[in-house]
Design a protein that fits this description.
The termini are far apart. Strands 3, 4, 5, 6, 9, 10 and 11 form a seven-stranded mixed beta sheet that branches. Strands 1-2 form a two-stranded antiparallel sheet. Helix content is 45%, strand content 22%. It is of the alpha/beta class.
Length: 297
């Protein structure tokens, strides 16, 4: 049996995946915490083992070959499996200890979850929380996360989901901005102000338009596709933008035209059905349910 038939060393695949992600040996080395010559050696060993080049040099870095692109998804699947294995092995199933990975949108992860997780950590200090802020719904079936907070109802049958309620979104501004620019009382008047919004056509922009707010990309004076950047701009007094009503109440922002504009984001806490009997996952799941319901008031 050849060495290839026997299986390719995972550390070589890990180096390969890091170069695929980062585009250079030095960045890949930083990503996985090893020396650059080690990354180079592992890539060369992998190329020798499979008998084909994986990268070509270019002025912008290392470019993957067609073979590399074909292999990348398999390496990513192995990386997810290895990480999920490490979390599962971090403690006994009956212990409230070890690693639990949580996925949530940028705003929920950064602005809402930390106080909830602080209370959880105080009760269970042996827990290790890994938090992934991402507006992409991470794949629970592939174990990208153990528990997720989602703003859409999960569709997969293998998931356990608890509906939390609806997060209300509305138009808001800082009091200092309104003191200088005046307070609009209609949606048409809002359009005459400095608006905070997205850089390109997105579902959020279409939702604004569907709610009767005839705003276009050209109307935004501050543009970012990052929800956190938009929230920071509202807090800084750059103009009027959309944010979650509970966050605005907490920060003392002023809600505008509440009777004329607003929409809801359904909120769910989700985990894989195979994990509901794992004590550390159940405790995190329950803490998120309780904390998010408190957040919604």
């Amino acid at each position: 049996m050849s060495s290839l038939d026997a299986g390719i060393d995972w550390e070589r695949q890990r180096a390969f995946l890091a170069v695929m992600t980062e585009g250079s040996l030095s960045a890949a080395a930083r990503r996985i915490g090893i020396a650059q010559p080690t990354v180079r050696r592992r890539i060369e060993e992998l190329e020798a083992e499979i008998g084909t080049p994986l990268f070509t040099r270019s002025p912008s870095g290392l470019l993957p070959t067609e073979q590399a692109r074909a292999l990348a998804e398999h390496a990513r699947a192995m990386a997810l499996a290895a990480d999920a294995f490490g979390r599962a092995a971090s403690a006994e199933a009956a212990e409230i200890a070890g690693r639990v990975r949580i996925s949530a949108s940028d705003v929920i992860a950064v602005e809402v979850l930390p106080p909830i997780l602080a209370r959880l950590a105080a009760r269970h200090p042996a827990l290790v929380i890994e938090l992934s802020p991402s507006n992409r719904n991470e794949d629970m079936l592939r174990r990208e996360a153990d528990v997720a907070v989602r703003m859409v109802a999960p569709m997969q049958e293998a998931l356990v989901a608890q509906r939390i309620g609806a997060v209300r979104l509305g138009l808001h501004a800082h009091a200092d901005y309104l003191a200088a620019a005046g307070t609009p009382h209609t949606l048409e008047a809002v359009r005459d102000h400095r608006l905070i919004g997205v850089e390109r056509d997105t579902p959020i922009l279409r939702a604004l338009q569907a709610q009767g707010f005839p705003v276009r990309l050209a109307d935004f004076a501050f543009r970012s596709d990052s929800d956190l950047a938009q929230l920071a701009a509202i807090r800084a007094g750059l103009g009027i933008g959309v944010c979650q009503v509970p966050l605005a109440v907490r920060d003392g922002l002023v809600r505008l035209v509440p009777e004329g504009f607003g929409f809801d984001l359904e909120t769910w806490v989700v985990c894989h059905e195979d994990l509901r009997g794992v004590a550390r996952v159940r405790v995190v799941f329950d803490a998120l349910v309780t904390g998010l319901r408190e957040y919604l008031g």
